[in-house]
Design goal:
Layout lengths: L1 E8 L8 H5 L3 E5 L9 H18 L3 E5 L11 H16 L4 E4 L5 E2 L8 H18 L6 E5 L10 E2 L17 E6 H15 L22 E6 L1 E3 L11 E4 L8 H12 L5 E5 L10 H15 L1
Parallel strand pairs: 1-2, 1-12, 2-3, 3-4, 4-6, 6-8, 8-9, 9-12
Antiparallel strand pairs: 5-7, 10-11
């Protein structure tokens, strides 16, 4: 069963769509750049805003999104401390999930696919330590699958991409945030490459094969994308697109909605949809209508 959520910036509660909240839509609070967390005033604003939301609407924030930029918690002790503070805040406000990217950004020139298993093992050891530290807490961490290549085709954050990349996720308090938009992009790219030349061999994927790891999925993100990019192609991919307007055929996204909605456990789904004005959520309303029509069909 899907529980729809709208994202908002933790430092700007004016982005909360009050009309949607009144209809039962829940929320995910975001910080995008770790540099913001260097300022103690920002932490104060976050706490104040979460207090306001809880007072006005109750416990409708079910997830917090840890920053993805300038926040490499593996190598930066400050970023590691910020993650601990995120856990503390989530526990304080009874927020169920913290969304975590691997934050392993490397340029085309730096990235070595031959070292990916070694890198993944480092993350698994780190996650085991975090898991042990939050045992007994009501907070869980959902590690997000990333697209196979960055939006501009000049970097990678490809530690966890395919369902099989999560095969060693056997933690009690750490699971998966399955991003359908990222997965759609990965699926589309690999499917196109498989038809490009007999010299190119790619793994054959089924779009709904993420269902094989559903026991580890505790939260989801949803969107489509527009355009594709490849290394050194000087092209760009736009994320956060309405499903009916994206590059991938909407039927794939519709099938993922049907798949997740039939799961017995409740699954929160944050709609990461771009807006021209995040105080007037036109596109997310269209996406909610699209999803509701899929569920009724």
């Amino acid at each position: 069963m899907i529980i729809i959520q709208a994202p908002f910036l933790l430092t700007n509660i004016d982005q909360i769509p009050k009309d949607l909240v009144k209809t039962g839509i829940h929320l995910e609070g975001n910080i995008f750049d770790g540099n913001d967390l260097k300022d103690e005033a920002v932490w104060k604003i976050i706490n104040e805003n979460l207090n306001i939301v809880k007072h006005q609407y109750g416990e409708i924030i079910h997830s917090l999104h840890y920053p993805m930029n300038n926040a490499n918690y593996i190598s930066d002790p400050y970023a590691k401390d910020w993650l601990s503070r995120f856990v503390e805040i989530a526990h304080k406000f009874n927020i169920q999930t913290i969304v975590l990217h691997s934050n392993y950004f490397q340029s085309i020139d730096e990235f070595k696919v031959s070292k990916i298993n070694e890198t993944r093992d480092k993350y698994l050891k780190f996650f085991q330590n975090i898991n042990d530290n939050i045992m007994g807490s009501n907070v869980k961490i959902g590690v997000e699958n990333m697209p196979i290549i960055g939006d501009k085709g000049n970097d990678y954050d490809s530690v966890f991409v395919l369902p099989s990349d999560f095969e060693n996720f056997n933690f009690e308090n750490i699971g998966i945030t399955w991003d359908i938009g990222h997965w759609a992009y990965t699926y589309f790219i690999l499917d196109n490459l498989s038809n490009f030349s007999t010299a190119v061999i790619t793994q054959k994927l089924e779009f709904n094969e993420f269902a094989t790891i559903r026991e580890k999925i505790l939260h989801t993100h949803f969107s489509s994308f527009k355009g594709t990019t490849y290394p050194f192609s000087n092209s760009n991919c736009e994320e956060g697109i309405i499903p009916s307007e994206g590059t991938i055929a909407p039927i794939y996204l519709a099938n993922s909605i049907k798949e997740i909605d039939k799961w017995e456990k409740p699954i929160t789904m944050t709609l990461e949809i771009r807006e021209d004005d995040y105080k007037n959520r036109v596109n997310i309303r269209k996406t909610i209508d699209w999803i509701n029509n899929i569920k009724k069909a």
